[in-house]
Amino acid sequence: MSRRDTESKIKEIIEKYNCDDEIKQSSLPSGSDIRMLLPRLERAAMNQADNGRSTVSRYGIWASTVNSCLNIAQQQIADGQPEEAVKLIKKVMRSMSAFEEIQALFDPWVNGESK
Length: 115
Fold this sequence. Notes:
The chain is mainly alpha-helical.
């Protein structure tokens, strides 16, 4: 795929999900085992630390698991289980925070390497 085609496809995907009125789901396979949320993040980060070839796909699997957790939380709310949903949402928030901190480890601007 050419650079122009890739950019066009990226813009198309972003536009597809740029809406406030509905939840749109990816058609890609789901990483539905929510117990694997942090282990999948760890695998991706370790692969990134080793400059591994699977980094992006591992982060993609982790992101799919994040999405699955949020889908389950949404269903729990609909089923009248808001306490369980909040627990799951907090788990997702902790995972996202861990991701942010992990990425900061690799950011030369954060680590003062690009002054």
